[in-house]
């Protein structure tokens, strides 16, 4: 009954708004109500006349600078406000509406209708009720009007009076943060988060800190993510979301056992409080039992239309048969070559009919277009034809696609990347048995296997670090030109594992072009090995490559320097910032290393 009333009310209110906009004067609106408006209510004139004054009183009028022109509500024995001439008790006062009339309804409908400068002026007036802004913004987003949604939700959170925010403001806040991220408004996103953290209500501050933590995790800035998590814990100590966030943070840091231990702590603590519903408790119980598998399942299920195809892919990869051998040969220069066979080409052609997107042959990792908008088609087709994975080109495309979407999530490595790594590793073992020649990127079809290897190294780097490093080292030994730029990655992982002697060996291998990460890694390894003079020499070489790196590492809260979507330019602040994000935690966790770095600035004459 209530649903039918809401539909009826919306229909009448929408037509009423159109009638009001034609003239913006009450007598004209009431004349419309009696002549045509009643038809929207099935000819019920009494209900139309009872509704019309209510809606008029809450409608923003452009001629009044978007203020309303509310009518004085009459007493029972006073003339009815619908201008019928009868007493209220014998007219609209005798009508019982089937349900309530929200007092922000006409503002919400107006915000849905206005465009361009009119919408901009209405929002700038500051008169729009918070609930109307909230609902109009969410509706715009749901209908795909992302720019309009952003414009309206910005007005919701730019009112200065945080107490006016409706209870449902949390999803609107998260939506606005997502819109800023999707549309590239990174400064606006940062400003909104700062404003909420500084002045917002407690419940929004907790959400902002949680989102900040997730943003830092996405960018691999684990130190900042940890700091944001601690602040979130202080703001909302009993939020069940913190269990989820901490598990993710610990898995990103490579501490799987501690992640399980902390998940069990959160389950015991929050279950004793008795404030959680059955679904929340069930999720925390699963998280306590196996954080990685639980987060992976949640990730897959959150993919909406792709949940079932992704689950089918996981099941397929779990039982994938052993990969067939490939065709390798040695050329006149002593280089090893992989050549795709006719069968492999046929399998790839069948896959490509569904996948449709081509690999960017000029890039180490990437496609000429995004394969995910139609992923349901190629995932289902692949699960129906698992033999396609006998083709390295199909494995390459699948691995690149998975890495682009799930490569930053440690908990996705066991079910998606490790089974594909097993396939590539079999081919590498065969290749290593073919002879001692180098396996160069630009020879024959070699790039297919090397590119697949790079994607797997990246995909497993957070969730299967040891396996990722071993694979990277194998690829480095095959491709002595380091076409994939794996030396820095291997070096970073060795330093994280405390294998400083091995890290030093990797850093001392010849380089055609000096690399900041390799030189700084060499300096750190030598410092840890207490070879300070050699460490200083490595640091001097690093500052020749980038004069900003020491200051960027030593500063507590330096200004971020983004390279956008591209690779940072050598010697730039963006390059130094990227190195800080990746490796500052290793310098900070090495006793005295940051103080030693700071002390060398004068000797090296860098600021």
From TrEMBL:
Domain of life of the organism encoding this protein: Bacteria
InterPro entries hit by this protein: SEC_C_motif (IPR004027), TPR-like_helical_dom_sf (IPR011990)
Pfam families recorded: SEC-C (PF02810)
Gene3D superfamilies referenced in this protein's UniProt entry, alphabetically: 3.10.450.50, Tetratricopeptide repeat domain
Record-given protein name: Zinc chelation protein SecC
């Amino acid at each position: 009954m209530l649903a039918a009333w809401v539909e009826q009310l919306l229909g009448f209110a929408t037509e009423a708004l159109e009638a009001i906009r034609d003239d913006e004067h009450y007598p004209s609106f009431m004349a419309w109500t009696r002549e045509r408006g009643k038809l929207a209510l099935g000819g019920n004139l009494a209900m139309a006349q009872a509704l019309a004054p209510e809606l008029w009183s809450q409608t923003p009028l452009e001629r009044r600078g978007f203020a309303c022109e509310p009518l004085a509500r009459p007493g029972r024995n006073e003339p009815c406000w619908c201008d019928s001439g009868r007493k209220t008790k014998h007219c609209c006062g005798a009508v019982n509406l089937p349900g309530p009339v929200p007092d922000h309804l006409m503002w919400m409908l107006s915000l849905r209708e206005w465009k361009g400068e009119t919408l901009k002026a209405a929002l700038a007036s500051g008169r729009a009720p918070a609930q109307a802004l909230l609902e109009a913004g969410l509706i715009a987003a749901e209908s795909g009007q992302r720019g309009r949604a952003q414009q309206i939700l910005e007005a919701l959170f730019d009112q200065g009076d945080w107490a006016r925010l409706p209870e449902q403001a949390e999803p609107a806040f998260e939506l606005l943060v997502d819109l800023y991220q999707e549309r590239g408004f990174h400064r606006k996103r940062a400003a909104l988060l700062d404003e909420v953290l500084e002045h917002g209500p407690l419940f929004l501050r907790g959400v902002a800190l949680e989102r900040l933590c997730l943003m830092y995790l996405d960018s691999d800035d684990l130190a900042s993510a940890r700091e944001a998590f601690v602040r979130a814990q202080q703001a909302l100590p009993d939020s069940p979301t913190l269990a989820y966030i901490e598990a993710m943070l610990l898995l990103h840091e490579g501490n799987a056992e501690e992640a399980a231990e902390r998940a069990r702590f959160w389950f015991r603590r929050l279950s004793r409080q008795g404030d959680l519903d059955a679904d929340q408790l069930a999720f925390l119980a699963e998280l306590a039992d196996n954080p990685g598998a639980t987060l992976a399942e949640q990730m897959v299920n959150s993919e909406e239309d792709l949940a079932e195809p992704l689950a089918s892919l996981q099941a397929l990869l779990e039982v994938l048969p052993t990969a067939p051998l490939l065709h390798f040969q040695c050329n006149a220069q002593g280089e090893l070559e992989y050549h795709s066979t006719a069968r492999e080409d046929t399998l790839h052609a069948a896959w490509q009919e569904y996948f449709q997107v081509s690999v960017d042959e000029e890039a180490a990792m990437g496609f000429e277009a995004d394969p995910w908008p139609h992923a349901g088609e190629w995932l289902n087709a692949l699960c129906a034809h698992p033999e396609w994975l006998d083709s390295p080109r199909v494995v390459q495309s699948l691995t690149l696609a998975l890495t682009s979407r799930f490569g930053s999530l440690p908990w996705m490595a066991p079910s998606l990347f490790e089974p594909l790594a097993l396939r590539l590793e079999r081919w590498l073992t065969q290749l290593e048995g073919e002879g001692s020649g180098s396996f160069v990127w630009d020879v024959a079809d070699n790039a297919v296997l090397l590119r697949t290897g790079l994607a797997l190294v990246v995909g497993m780097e957070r969730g299967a670090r040891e396996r990722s490093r071993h694979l990277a080292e194998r690829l480095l030994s095959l491709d002595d030109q380091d076409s994939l730029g794996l030396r820095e990655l291997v070096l970073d992982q060795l330093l994280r594992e405390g294998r400083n002697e091995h890290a030093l060996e990797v850093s001392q291998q010849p380089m055609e072009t000096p690399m900041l990460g390799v030189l700084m890694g060499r300096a750190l390894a030598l410092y840890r090995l207490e070879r300070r003079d050699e460490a200083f020499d490595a640091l001097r070489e690093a500052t020749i490559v980038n004069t900003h790196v020491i200051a960027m590492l030593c500063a507590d809260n330096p200004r971020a320097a983004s390279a956008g979507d591209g690779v940072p330019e050598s010697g730039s602040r963006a390059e130094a910032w990227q190195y800080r994000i990746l490796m500052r935690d290793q310098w900070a966790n090495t006793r005295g290393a940051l103080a030693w770095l700071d002390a060398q600035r004068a000797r090296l004459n860098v600021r």
